Known about the structure:
The structure holds two protein chains of two kinds.
Chain A: H1 10-24, E1 36-43, H2 47-60, E2 64-71, H3 73-81, E3 88-90, H4 94-102, E4 106-116, E5 118-123, E6 143-146, H5 151-163, E7 171-173, H6 176-184, E8 190-194, H7 195-200, E9 205-208, E10 218-225, H8 231-242, H9 244-252
Chain B: H1 13-36, H2 42-46, H3 49-82, H4 88-100, H5 103-114, H6 121-128, H7 136-161, H8 164-172, H9 177-205, H10 209-214, H11 225-235, H12 237-265
Helix pairs in contact in B: 1-12, 3-7, 3-9, 4-7, 7-9, 8-9, 9-12, 11-12
Amino acid sequence: MFKRSATTSAAVAALVAVASAGCGEVDEATGDGGGTTLTVFAAASLTETFTELGEAFEKANPGTDVRFGFAGSSTLAQQITQGAPADVFAAASPATMKTVADAGDAAGDPVVFTTNRLVIAVPKDNPGGVRSVGDLADGDLRVVVCAEQVPCGAAAGKALDAAGVTVEPASAEKDVKAVLTKVRLGEADAGLVYRTDVKAAGGDVTGIEFAESAEAVNDYPIVRVADAPQPGLAREFIDLVTGPQGEAVLGAAGFQAP
Amino acid sequence: MTARDTVPGRPPLALVLPAAAGLAFLVLPPAGLLVRAPWSTLGTRLVRPEVLDALRLSLVTATIATALCVLFGVPLAWTLARVRFPGARLVRALVTVPMVLPPVVGGVALLLAAGRRGFVGGPLESAFGITLPFTTAGVVLAQTFVAMPFLVISVEGALRGADPRFEEAAATLGASRWTAFRRVTLPLVAPGVAAGAVLCWARALGEFGATITFAGNFPGETQTMPLAVYLALETDPQAAIVLSLVMLAVSVAVLAALRNRWIGAS
């Protein structure tokens, strides 16, 4: 629900912020009359792991509702700097985190809580016969990457440069999940996504590791948003993510410890 | 609004206040664009190749999509308005589905039908080597899909409002149904077709969800203005504002064109 069309201006962002801040006051019937809502903005690649951690958080804090906004990190960073009422921001790159910190919207220093590597994802039947990163240079192959504005796109550019491979992508998608979808549906012969995305897709796609992805390891920083409506809960949620439980969930999904 | 429609006396505050609030809500966001616009660098930003590419692609695809909508939509509207057949109501409902469908859902539907593994796209690729996703043709397809209902509904309305006796008179004078349609009906409903085409064009121009889902995003190939705005917002908000201003100007121009149409049609 956080993907607003680009034509909405700062004025609307402010209006929405005011309106949803207003909604936050409304007690939702959660059975015990608590009904506080924690809002977490997180990179698209964290969708599965953070959803799981959010459920654990709700169990540990009865009456708390965790709301997630999953999207490309840059979109989320934009929305936070425009005053969207988030409590926690988890980005897929230090660069997008810097946008938020530079605007004075980060409370304290961001902590890197996990890392992720790129792999080549191909549809299960591998119609393009992709074996290595060098195969991506083939002009007849339909390769899909992230737009360079989002972390996975920046990482893809770096990794391909390191491999010395020039790729003519068919599309530069708005976030990593969109790339995964195109591969999953067989619309693309190959896509550059994170290891964790391949895992999340189950058997639909096959991941092909390549050494040069080490040149573009993505650090994931997390921070409490300044003026967070729920600063206490935000701290607790960050503790959960950076603690052993977070490490276990992230590790199981294919993330690596920083 | 003529003198006959106005109510004498002071308008009640209970109506005026929410009206003012409603107006403010509609006017403030576009005003925000104007307030925050980087006027000093506007000229240099507008002529950037990537902006011109996106604008050109948007104008070309929206125009082709509108032409397709007219080509197929007018006959469809005529059939709905003039031919009695079983299931007409169901057909009319089906025609309007893309209008109420969230555009992203439209994009997913298009992928599943016309994608490389879709029941239409698969045979297309294996038989003719034609693939639609990630191509400019895919953009046009997405736009046509979401915009055509606007044309059909507006032309069908015009046809229902047109007096069928003119067509009957033409028939008694020996005109075939096709000639009557061409020489009598079409000129009668021309304002409706034009208004529908403008609406259609505006809808196609603003298309985002179905396009990014079905056609992807590649500069010069599938990156239309709305996609460019969305991605510019990620790195260069100023550029996004400039692109948004262009879209705003186009929308206002369309609105002005429509008004004249309506006044001309009444």
